[in-house]
Specification:
The complex is a heterodimer of chains A (504) and B (501). Chain A has 23 helices and 4 strands. With 504 residues, chain A is mainly α. In chain B, the strands form 2 sheets. In chain B, strands 3-4-6-5 form a 4-stranded mixed β-sheet. In chain B, helix 3 packs parallel to helix 20, helix 6 packs parallel to helix 8 and helix 7 packs parallel to helix 10. The chains are: A mainly alpha (504), B mainly alpha (501). Chains A and B meet through helix 13, helix 14 and helix 23 of A and helix 12, helix 13 and helix 23 of B.
Chain lengths: 504, 501
């Protein structure tokens, strides 16, 4: 009998669509809560305008002309393109679309080694809530999607594996998270090698290796593919160079999680340890035992080190979690069933309908952003707003009165000024901490924390005006100094300038 | 030769078991290496002061008399037992005696934990490896403060509940002593409840719940007795209400030990947790219910407050032992093949007795040393370098008048040096000050917009604060304050003009 064509979306597709609509409705402003989004847009626009990559810093007086590696150039062009279509709402919607497609793919991954209910539970209780810790309209959302696609190919373990080098080449131009793809491939390779139990047949490594020939070749090709970007392999190595301690301890997303504030992350972590303890290895459902044994400690080690990696750990542990939940559910004590369940006709579902629907919804919303009907304007202003700490009035003031030449600005305000003013004032720092380097970033930290060498820093960098949030010790200290005066102040920010007599 | 504990033949031998040797050696090492660091925390000095005061007055203080912010307010002195002991040791052997006392407590704690592993028939090398990791995790919080009593009593409770079930009746007595020493006595009840629940869950898998409950009759009775025993302290059961009150006080925001552990900075803990996850994933059988409950309890506690990291270091040893069973089996097989020599019979008592004798001997020596040797002792066990001794020496000769605003961690030093004569703004015993004073302190110290107003409202006349702090530098920029003393560590500022002008 000929099978009817499946049109109805499968649970994974429906889940992706639901995630998309839910995030558009409730998480628009959250995705725009980070300053980095703003400088990504600006640099993308500059690259689109000039038709070439930016390789030097154009905005600061501290690192002006210094080489800068735009390793996420393609993601920046994506963000700028969205911004040109419909402003910040379009940027948020475009990135939410990436997140939704990532969840769709993750559901498919979990579904491969468990049932729909277990996959739904694992993603809804673990991956989705933890993903909110780093749900921002920034290039790392490409890593969520491409990582999920990589995981899907690895779980299929068939000819789709050959897509991974291409995926890696694309990934290498979008986000530094390309390393995650290689880690996933490596974990699956090692895991599958151990799953063959080589010790049972006298460590016949040739035989075991022969079984892993294709994944090994794919991994080698993927490693080579990381060099397929304008900066070659240097872009890949750059990931290791930006891990300086000063950034790790100072930048919020690179710090370790504060488990008292992020109480739900604490409960999640405790829950994952408990499930690992209950993990029924003897009665495993799949042959992926060692893959998870290798992969999970790596993911959780990273999650415990940097708060930004919590989302990654929760998302890529979701298939393991769903398989564990399903086995534990099956092992529960239960009474024997009296009646056999009635046999029902199986519904024909399509795995493509869901993503297609999600993409269509996304495109429709982008069209709405383009036309901006009045009803949408009101919704967008309410749901896709910038953080409340930024002040448009202060920006208007700076646009008309530049109080000086060399600014000492608050870190996240650097991003906002780059985005909001054309040209922006000559900055001290912005979200590209890696470009500024440890010395400049260290001086910024010392100044912001009002360390004893504050006067020396101001003098060394010839700072003649300062923009800092109100009620910070630095502002209160400088307001007391006779050579500084407040030239602008509102309830969010204060602008101080050197008095006429004190200017160099 | 494999050492073996043999209670029947232990009386005939003086050779200490590996756990005893470990405890003895560790205590000696801690006295030598950790000694000065044990005295680094300011709270130690407040506890010593209170201990001395209680011994002198033979009663417990019930209202505050050491600060100008909450003077006369009633408060609960819940660690009086530990403070009296600290005061007595201090009077007998000075600060070296305090360092020896707490190093011995830490040594005995680790000895007890090693003994637990011996009871679980752990290979000495494996036990040594586990104890080394435990020591590394405990080391940062090893300070001369009453919580070290909780370490020792907690490890004893764990030993009794895990392998010495015939000593269960000791637990209510232990609770009586513990409740007068440190607030950590709650751990005794929590551990009993966990072992009770674990036993019930295990028994329920084998039999019906009535029989399971019947089997746990004795532990349940002992838990009830222990609960009753918590009232045997000068404050009775009001002490429990006090703990609820203190936990409602939001001290976590600023006080590092109440904050969550920074897993990026605490590399050992991070690696330890990763290894634990790996071991849990690799295991072949589900761990015992008690160990699973311990895992839940300890992880939740340790990830919430960094001062509770010590819990996972100590209380998860039975779980580790269970997870490492395959390695233990391999070692046992290998030993059976290679080690054909006679087993050594060791005594379980010699080690602890020798450790206590070492501590007593050192305290006696510190007491009996002639005055010419005292400077050397002070050099070995100096007062905390974190306290502003030079500034205090200046203040002794030039005492400012009026009320002081002092750095939080220096309050203890001022109380200790002035023997309670100088009323401070705040000290480490946060619960005494309540939320308002605590919040106001951080408003001033953090240079908030209310800082100046608060200094006036508390009628502050002089400030003792770190020289590099924004507050000090800010006040010096105003014409209302001037420095009368400055060094690299501390500054003393006084008002240039009388308050209110």
């Amino acid at each position: 009998m000929k099978r009817p064509i499946a049109i109805l979306p499968d649970p994974a597709g429906l889940y992706g669509l639901f995630v998309f609509l839910f995030l558009v409705r409730f998480a628009g402003s959250k995705t725009l809560a980070d300053g980095d989004t703003l400088w990504h847009i600006k640099f993308g626009e500059m690259m689109l305008k000039s038709g070439r990559l930016i390789t030097n810093d154009p905005f600061s007086h501290t690192a002006q002309g210094q080489p800068w590696l735009a390793h996420e150039w393609l993601a920046e062009i994506f963000a700028a393109g969205l911004h040109q279509i419909g402003g910040l709402p379009a940027v948020a919607i475009g990135h939410i679309l990436l997140a939704a497609l990532a969840f769709n793919t993750l559901f498919l991954c979990a579904r491969r080694i468990s049932n729909d209910w277990a996959a739904f539970a694992a993603i809804s209780l673990s991956a989705a809530p933890m993903a909110t810790t780093h749900l921002l309209a920034r290039p790392h959302l490409f890593s969520w999607l491409l990582g999920a696609l990589t995981l899907y190919c690895l779980l299929r373990n068939d000819r789709t594996l050959w897509a991974l080098p291409l995926l890696t080449a694309l990934w290498g131009n979008l986000h530094g998270g390309v390393l995650l793809g290689l880690v996933l491939q490596g974990a699956f390779l090692v895991g599958r090698f151990f799953d063959t139990r080589p010790w049972l047949h006298g460590f016949d490594w040739k035989c075991s290796l022969a079984e892993q020939k294709r994944p090994l070749m794919v991994l080698v090709l993927s490693i080579l593919a990381t060099g397929c970007n304008p900066f070659g392999f240097y872009a890949f190595l750059f990931n290791f160079q930006v891990n300086a301690e000063i950034f790790a301890v100072s930048i919020g997303e690179w710090r370790a999680a504060d488990f008292r504030k992020l109480w739900y992350v604490r409960y999640w972590l405790v829950g994952m340890f408990l499930l690992a303890a209950l993990y029924p290895r003897k009665e495993r459902l799949t042959s992926l035992d060692w893959t998870w044994i290798v992969l999970l400690p790596i993911l959780f080690y990273q999650a415990m080190t940097h708060v930004r990696h919590i989302s990654i750990a929760a998302m890529f542990a979701a298939p393991w979690l769903s398989s564990t939940l399903q086995t534990l559910w099956q092992q529960r004590p239960r009474r024997p069933r009296q009646k056999k369940p009635a046999e029902r006709a199986e519904l024909q579902l399509s795995s493509l309908s869901g993503p297609t629907l999600t993409l269509t919804a996304g495109l429709l919303l982008l069209v709405v952003c383009w036309y901006t009907p009045p009803a949408w304007q009101e919704f967008a202003a309410e749901r896709f707003s910038l953080p409340v700490g930024y002040s448009q009035e202060a920006v208007d003031y700076i646009a008309q009165n530049r109080p000086g030449q060399r600014l000492l600005n608050e870190y996240s305000w650097g991003d906002y000024l780059i985005y909001a003013l054309d040209p922006p004032p000559s900055l001290f720092i912005d979200g590209r901490a890696d470009m500024y380097g440890e010395a400049i970033f260290g001086d910024y930290r010392a100044a912001a924390a009002l360390k004893p060498n504050i006067d020396d820093i101001l003098e060394r960098y010839e700072i003649d005006w300062i923009l800092f949030p109100k009620n910070t010790p630095l502002v209160r200290y400088l307001e007391r100094k006779p050579d500084w005066q407040a030239v602008y102040s509102d309830d969010k920010v204060v602008i101080l300038a050197l008095t006429e007599g004190s200017k160099p | 030769m494999t050492p073996r504990l043999d209670p029947a033949r232990a009386r005939s031998t003086l050779l200490p078991a590996p756990s005893g040797l470990f405890g003895l050696a560790l205590t000696a090492l801690l006295i030598l290496i950790r000694g000065p660091k044990l005295l680094a925390d300011g709270d130690t000095y407040t506890h010593i002061f209170y201990g001395n005061w209680i011994l002198e007055n033979l009663r417990l203080p019930d209202t505050d008399f050491l600060s100008h912010t909450v003077q006369g307010t009633s408060w609960v002195i819940h660690e009086w037992g530990a403070q009296v002991l600290m005061g007595a040791v201090y009077q007998f052997a000075g600060l070296p005696g305090i360092a020896v006392l707490f190093a011995t407590l830490a040594g005995l704690t680790l000895l007890t934990l090693y003994r637990l592993l011996e009871d679980l028939e752990t290979d000495p090398w494996l036990a040594l490896a586990l104890m080394t990791v435990t020591l590394l995790l405990l080391y940062p919080t090893m300070l001369a403060r009453p919580h070290l009593f909780s370490w020792l009593f907690g490890s004893l409770t764990l030993l009794i509940l895990t392998t010495r079930r015939n000593w269960l009746w000791v637990l209510p007595l232990l609770t009586v002593v513990w409740v007068n020493l440190h607030g950590g006595y709650i751990l005794c009840l929590a551990l009993q409840a966990i072992y009770l629940a674990g036993g019930l869950l295990t028994d329920c898998a084998e039999t019906d719940w009535r029989s399971a409950l019947h089997r746990q009759q004795q532990p349940l009775l002992i838990l009830l007795l222990s609960l009753l025993a918590t009232g045997l302290n000068p404050h009775g059961y009001a002490l429990i209400g006090f703990y609820i009150e203190v936990s409602a006080l939001d001290v976590t925001r600023h006080n590092p030990e109440w904050q969550a552990p920074d897993l990026q900075a605490h590399k050992i803990l991070r690696v330890w947790l990763t290894l634990l996850l790996f071991a849990l994933l690799v295991k072949r059988q589900r761990p015992h219910w008690t160990n699973l409950l311990l895992l839940l309890f300890c992880l939740e506690a340790a990830l919430t407050h960094r001062r509770h990291v010590s819990l996972i270091a100590m209380l998860l040893l039975p779980l580790w032992r269970e997870l490492l069973q395959p390695i233990q089996d391999r070692i046992a097989t290998w030993r059976a093949q290679t080690d054909q020599r006679k087993q050594l019979i060791c005594s379980g008592r010699t080690g602890p007795v020798m450790t206590l004798m070492l501590a007593a001997g050192l305290m006696l020596t510190a007491n009996a040393l002639p005055p010419t040797w005292q400077p050397h002792l002070q050099q070995m066990f100096p007062e905390s370098e974190l306290l502003p001794k030079k500034a205090w020496d200046y203040l002794v000769d030039n005492p400012p008048t009026g009320r002081v605003f002092n750095a939080y961690s220096w309050g203890a030093g001022l109380i200790y040096w002035s023997k309670g004569e100088l009323p401070v703004f705040i000290d480490g015993l946060t619960h005494k000050y309540g939320k308002q004073v605590y919040e106001d302190y951080y408003q001033i110290a953090g240079l908030s917009e209310k800082a100046k107003e608060l200094l006036d409202r508390y009628e502050i006349d002089w400030v003792l604060f770190p020289t590099a702090a924004p507050l000090t530098r800010y006040l010096l920029l105003t014409d209302e304050w001037q420095a009368i003393y400055r060094d690299d560590q501390a500054s003393v500022l006084v008002r240039s003009a009388p308050r209110g002008r």
